[in-house]
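hi! just following up on the protien thing from before. the input was this:
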Amino acid sequence: MIRYNELIFDGVRTSSFPFSVIVESSPTAYFVASKTDIIEHTGINGALTVSNHKRSTLKKDYTLTLVHPSEQQVYEFIALLSRERVWLESASEVLVRYFVYKADTFQTTRDVFGNYTINVSFTCHPTKFFKEIDTQRFSTNGVLIMQGTALAYPKISVYGQSSTETFFSVGTHEIRLKALSQQVIFYNDPFQAKVVDHNRNENTIDWKGDFICLNANVSDKRLGVTLGKGITNIEIETNWGYL
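and the predicted 3d structure came back as:
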């Protein structure tokens, strides 16, 4: 089947179907503007700005042609595109992938030859995420190297033993732990922010601080990492991306 320009949607390749799927698209650089407000004021030249570096959603549009599928296969293909909160990858974009919230309403047309054309628009997270997860490990104080330009929410695994309060820091972010036993995992993703112990139990960790967000849109991409007493190593897993 056709692999050129294929899409991988929720882990399923368009080239894996028993009929050919032609994907009409080309690599495009997408940029989503920040939510910073520009306020015109009669008393000044120019304008005032209210900074807000968060961004709106991103649209990804595709035209897909299904070559001689059965009616049942068309419905099954549409059901795939209708899945929500999934990853979208394209063979034409080697570095990045997109997190799809949902597909907008789309239309399917059939030509006289029995081919179906689907025009679909996906509503995605504004970050163009790297396809590969970056893992950086520290057994002593060190430097975390940020990548890309977007906000990132790392998963941080902390290992060690301490019966008294200890801490670790990443840049200006400091987390204090009342005690440490074996492993603590911080999931900093705002959609599923949580802290669990080595048994994946929540609400068992006594800690202070804020969930960590890393802003890679800076010139100096080096962040100091400090390990407190009893912490033997830290593993920082990050899905970096571009604005």
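The first strand starts at residue 7 and ends at 9.
Helices lie at 71-81.
cheers
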